[in-house]
Amino acid sequence: MAGPIPRYLLPDNSSVTDGRLSIGGCDVLELAEEFGTPLFVYDEDQIRARCREAVEAFGDGVAYATKSFLCTAMARLAHEEGMLLDVATGGEMFVALNAGVPAARLVLHGNNKSEIELRMALEAGVGRIVVDSFDELDLLETLHSRGLGPASVLIRITPGVEAHTHDYIATGHDDTKFGFTVSTGAAATAVARAIDSPAMTVLGIHAHIGSQVFRLASFVEAARAIVSFAGRFDLNELSIGGGLGVAYVEGETAPPISEWAEAIQQVATEEGVTARIMAEPGRAIVAGAAITLYRVGTIKVLPGIRTYVAVDGGMSDNPRPVLYGSGYETFLPGAVDAERPQTVTVVGKHCESGDVLVRDGFVPDDLRVGDILATPVTGAYGHSMGSNYNKVLRPAVVFCKDGVARLVVRRETYEDLIRLDVE
Ligand code: LLP
Asked: What is the CB-side half-sphere exposure of residue 342 using CA atoms within 13 A?
């Protein structure tokens, strides 16, 4: 038994008229009719507000982590709002450059950057490359000997900090594939070598302890570790990475970007750091700005066991419940203020029992086949980690603002599914 969906889990610019939800002034049931389902509906002004909050808090050193959600419109939006863009692959770099974001505004990540990716970055003039391994240092030197570079780099260190999050997305502890380990001395060796190398200019140090982290104390610990490590070198930039968590379900709370920044800046102040403090939030910028709309197709009641509510998407548009056991809420955007006395399991249309979107979702008693059902807080790592498993078409994405819904990613078509087949 649950009450209505808590409003704080809905996008900032949500309003309810006669029980019906509007986002950015757009009635979401009408959006479902116009654009079809599943549909990602973003509150554009909320994304802009979060970008501004980040830029205000960190200044000109904060990057949007595009892995959380990227399309041409999103790259342009983050750039327009003054953020750098963190790209972790050649693909993300391509989308950002193709959107018109200047290469100098990009930060290239990756634990296994290919020669092609590094060449692409150096030729385009990417502003910062975050070096992750000794093999990458070798590769940058080889490319330099062939006339490319010097590269402007940050060195990614692994500070030995436990982030208190899901194991799959924790990266700050020693046993990780990412970065140069501080405790073994590898990090100090890497920085010294990079400083001496004509193939690169070392701008600073970077660390990313993990994702969906709620505890500011973990970031403070990481910031202290970075500052203490970097103290022996004279560098201009220190990056704390991303990872600030968001609330997905009732009862969770997460610190806002401004408090996260304050906690980190405080360490810098206490330690007398003059270097620029940088960060790269993804989830905290986009997660809460979107909901996903689905249409209910079947309802299977198993008395005494459970009720399965099947919708027209699933693990292909939100693999997070399957991957991390992540929890989500569910509600009917046509009855936002309704009590939700019924507990159901919301599943997708894929050929797997694991294809669960919401294990325990609360819905009104009168839920019917054909209803539009929504999951809030789906703006990060849903669309971007989506697939077309079972040849299910990837959903469309709309940005809503001032009563206008802008289609920014069209729905995949059956023709798209055979685009790459050569015979
Ligand atoms: N910087 C680096 C180097 C990262 O690896 C990441 C995320 C970020 C920034 C942004 O982190 P955020 O602020 O979004 O937490 N698929 C997982 C999250 C994986 C995050 C990977 N790296 C999920 O759905 O929870």
From this structure: 19
- Residues 209-231: tens digit of each pLDDT: 999 999 999 999 999 999 999 99
Tens digit of each residue's pLDDT (9 = 90 or more) over 354-392: 999 999 999 999 999 999 999 999 999 999 999 999 999
Range 7-43+288-417 classified under CATH 3.30.300.130 = no
Q: What percent of the chain has pLDDT over 70?
A: 100
Closest residue by Cα to atom 16, ligand 1, is 381
Nearest partner of 132 among 225, 212, 205, 224, judged by Cα: 205
Cα→Cα distances 295→121, 292, 375, 391, Å: 42, 10, 11, 18
CB of 208 closer than 6 A to ligand 1?
yes
**280, two tokens:** 């790269």
Q: How far does the centroid of ligand 1 lie from the alpha carbon of residue 98, in Å? A: 23
Whether 282 lines ligand 1, by a CB cut-off of 6 Å, is yes
Active site residue 351: yes
Q: What is the pTM of this model?
A: 0.98
Give domain limits for the chain.
Answer: 7-43+288-417, 44-286
Identify the CATH homologous superfamily for domain 44-286.
Alanine racemase (3.20.20.10)
Q: For the chain, how many residues are written?
A: 423
Residue 382, ligand 1, Cβ within 6 A? no
pLDDT band at 5 (very low <50, low <70, confident <90, very high): very high
- Which H/E stretch holds residue 222? helix 216-230
Q: What is the β-pairing status of strands 356-363 and 20-23?
A: unpaired
